[in-house]
Design brief:
four-stranded antiparallel β-sheet, alpha+beta, Alpha-Beta Plaits, 189 residues, 2 domains, 4 helices, 37% strand, single chain, SH3 type barrels
Length: 189
């Protein structure tokens, strides 16, 4: 129900509210914590107040009663991002929004997200609005580890999961060594 309203409301938002458009001077991304299982409500209510919101969602595999099914769920349950200019916007109204628990604060003011974090997440969003942590990677592909203790090691991507974890067979120690890594630690070789 809320998702349908959000889709309708997104089409009614002016162009300047597109979360992919560059931020204006003074604007920053901030983290909003929603009440449990009320992310969609919080997102809808913030959009109604004309706050640009990014609620990262991804397709995940859920196992229940020995069955696997694909569901759309939050990348960060109960957390979403909102664009604010703390000097211009009435940011305190965010805390009183239905479905919102609070903004993440630093003292008496909201704490901004480090520059580039949300922008990198937005780069991973596909045509359907889902965050794709496996973008540009596929099973059987040769990959290079770019971070961590195995940095610069080459291997073959054996398995991807929806939570951003991968299994790689690394070419080290004169053989294939399996390693479980974070998807962000890899690049195509």
């Amino acid at each position: 129900m809320y998702l349908e309203r959000i889709e309708r409301s997104e089409t009614m938002l002016p162009r300047k509210w597109d979360v992919r458009s560059p931020l204006e001077k003074g604007e920053r991304w901030y983290v909003v914590r929603s009440l449990p299982r009320q992310e969609a409500r919080a997102e809808f209510q913030l959009l109604r107040q004309r706050f640009p919101v990014f609620f990262p969602r991804a397709t995940k595999t859920v196992r229940h009663a020995r069955k696997l099914r694909m569901v759309k769920g939050a990348v960060f349950p109960t957390y979403m991002f909102v664009v604010l200019d703390v000097e211009r916007d009435r940011w305190r109204s965010v805390n009183g929004t239905g479905g919102v628990a609070s903004l993440i604060m630093q003292g008496d003011t909201p704490q901004p997200v480090p520059v580039g974090v949300v922008e990198n997440l937005l780069d991973l969003v596909d045509e359907e609005g889902m965050v794709r942590l496996d973008r540009n990677l596929r099973e059987g592909q040769t990959v290079r580890v770019v971070a961590g203790v195995f940095a610069n090691a080459i291997g073959v991507l054996e398995r991807l999961d929806a939570n951003g974890r991968v299994r790689v067979l690394l070419d080290i120690m004169n053989g294939k060594v399996p390693a479980h890594l974070d998807r962000l630690a890899l690049e195509a070789a």
